[in-house]
What does this fold into?
Amino acid sequence: MTLTVAYDTDIQFPYYLGQSAEVPSQKPGAIVELVRLLETKIPQLKIKLVRYPWKRCLVKLKAGQVDSVFNSSFKKERQELGRYPTKNGIVDKDRRLTTISYYFYKNKEGDFSWNGKQVSNPNAIVGAPLGFSIVDDLKRMNLIVEQTHATLSNLQKLMRGMVSVVALQEVTADYYLNNFGQFRSLQKVLPAIKTKPYYLMISHQFSTKHPKLSEKIWDTVGELREEALAGLVKKYFE
It folds into this structure.
């Protein structure tokens, strides 16, 4: 049984690396490695990894053109596209892949601030990754949001003054700020905007056809997160 699993073409260090449609043969990312480990725990399962821009991953999941996607935070409307692991009708955080926080990032000289409830400049134009769940959160805060695919593109727009601030996943944005000198003029704004669990979603088509296997996959994801994820992440920082 082959499970075709899609994930974003953008970098989400240390979870997945390589900014292209290619799946790197060496050091592909900690979550990519964890997903591949499903084969060792479920002998009848074979993992096929493919990459697309995130919105296309979700479109293909809905169409059943891929069986699964990661990393996906929970959004009620995404339940039309595929399924999350649930328990008693509620999304089961114990079977998540990982947890990721979103933060605002600004130019160090910028006057933007955030106290955890409101921003200092409600008219600020906020850059955010296209199709990411944080977009709806920002809009609920009545902020003006300009979406651009990829974390790097958003950071570059911030550097050019095309947006006032950006809202990005900490794991990816910090990777760029810590490893590329061109971004030394940027800084993270505390506290976090949101901290969310992230899941492996499975298509309605696959889960309807293979309900027991789908539950086994989600069970195993939870087990592997506890057993292996910390070790997989660690080697990307060595």
Summary: The two ends are 35 Å apart (CA to CA).
